[in-house]
Amino acid sequence: MNAPFHLPSVDKLLQHPHTATLLSAYGKTQTTQAIRSAVAEARIQWLGSKNAAATPNAETLIAAACQALAQRFAPRLKSVFNLTGTVLHTNLGRALLPQEAIDAVAQALATPSNLEYDLATGGRGDRDDLVEDLICELTGAEAATIVNNNAAAVLLCLSTLTAGREAIVSRGELVEIGGAFRIPDIMQRAGATLVEVGTTNRTHARDYENAISDATALLMKVHCSNYAISGFTKSVSDAEVTQIAHAHQLPMMVDLGSGTLVDLRQWDLPHEVTVRETIEAGADLVTFSGDKLLGGPQAGIIVGRKALIAQIKKNPLKRALRVGKLTLAALEPTLRLYLHPEQLATRLTTLRLFTRTEQEMQAQADQLQPALQTTLGSAYQVSTAAMSSQIGSGALPVESLPSYGLMIRPTERKHSGRQLQQLETAMRSLARPIIGRLQDDALWLDLRCLEHTDQATFIAQLSALTTILSHHHERHSA
Ligand SMILES: *Cc1c(COP(=O)(O)O)cnc(C)c1O
């Protein structure tokens, strides 16, 4: 019963030479707390087992405290390898930014800037002015304003324009994006009354016409971002809905979702309607995301008629939804890359990933396959395989990009499910986790997002993977 009292005291452990490095790295408060927890944990374990021989010594307790501290101080937001095949992966942070944006953010973090300061007059400036001209030039719109994300952009537009009146939307466009964003819910929060027209698969011009009344505030089109309705379908074009709206002196708004600034067909990518095309179709307001196809920071961009944008900027919600300086610092140089379209596919990170060739990724797969096979040993079979990536974040949900990567299958069919799970877990527990995709009894690593600059880190981690997997193995055979 007295075995726990053989445990070294917290004070003694704090004096121990091994503790010195912990004290200097983590400080007295955190180290003392970690050692206290390690001792308490050991005491509980002893009470459970009553095995005096298993009482840990000072070094073991300090090692446990060290591990707990390292875990506690490790960053929670970690770099990962996105080998899921989805380039704009919302859960993995969507767009990766170009170097110009990274440099501008670093500078904005470290020094004061003219965020809301007019350097010409010395008076107060408007943060939107930093990017408004550029956005207008790239989209053909009269005016622009920026908020926290596209969901905020939609909320702000509806709140400004509808104020207790009705917004007309097709039933085929009442989308939900990633659970928390649903057009009907946003409408309600914005104080708009949703008037649904048409059916899920077919909406006609007359459906919009018939729904217009004195209570109507606007007609709205929503981009079907993450789904496609196929078969017997009919929707009304932006231009037609605009015509109907304008015939009744009503504004027409488009939630474009991803919203690209350039025609992607010039890089043999599938066509996605551009912001400019939407403005040219007559839309009075268009909202889109900064971190989807645009390839910039999280932001919601609202473009459209000058008078409407001015009205939106006066809404008190604008202040609540405004962007910070880091967003603007990142957005400006990203937009500027679009002024040089010939270089866009090399300098805009997301576009560079979209346009990687199959041959390039296949060569990379051939190069990595032997290293990964050696790491995983005979329990797994690693092969190179053609696969297909997705753009992601709701852009072009049914189109896929031919890609190449590695496919890993357990060698033995027996327990193959568990083995695959084990491998997937091991990859996620690396210092820089590797996130793949489980499909058809295999782990797929799509190499589209593994650029050559990251390949060395990927390879360097493989030995750690061996260690983690051999621990698993020991545990299961014990
Ligand atoms: C992605 C998307 C949104 C939400 O945009 P966030 O920038 O993620 O807030 C809204 N509407 C559509 C159609 C979308 O595709």
TrEMBL record:
Its EC number is 2.9.1.1. PANTHER family: L-SERYL-TRNA(SEC) SELENIUM TRANSFERASE. Keywords: Cytoplasm, Protein biosynthesis, Pyridoxal phosphate, Selenium, Transferase. One of its GO terms (molecular function) is L-seryl-tRNA(Sec) selenium transferase activity. Its main location: cytoplasm. Pathway: Aminoacyl-tRNA biosynthesis; selenocysteinyl-tRNA(Sec) biosynthesis; selenocysteinyl-tRNA(Sec) from L-seryl-tRNA(Sec) (bacterial route): step 1/1. It is found in: Cytoplasm. It holds the Pfam family SelA. Its cofactor is pyridoxal 5'-phosphate. The keyword Lipid metabolism does not apply. It catalyses: L-seryl-tRNA(Sec) + selenophosphate + H(+) = L-selenocysteinyl-tRNA(Sec) + phosphate. This is L-seryl-tRNA(Sec) selenium transferase. It comes from Lampropedia puyangensis. One of its GO terms (biological process) is conversion of seryl-tRNAsec to selenocys-tRNAsec. It is an enzyme of class 2 (transferase). Residues 6-43 form the L-seryl-tRNA selenium transferase N-terminal domain. Converts seryl-tRNA(Sec) to selenocysteinyl-tRNA(Sec) required for selenoprotein biosynthesis. The modification N6-(pyridoxal phosphate)lysine is found at residue 292. GO terms for cellular component: cytoplasm. Belongs to the SelA family.
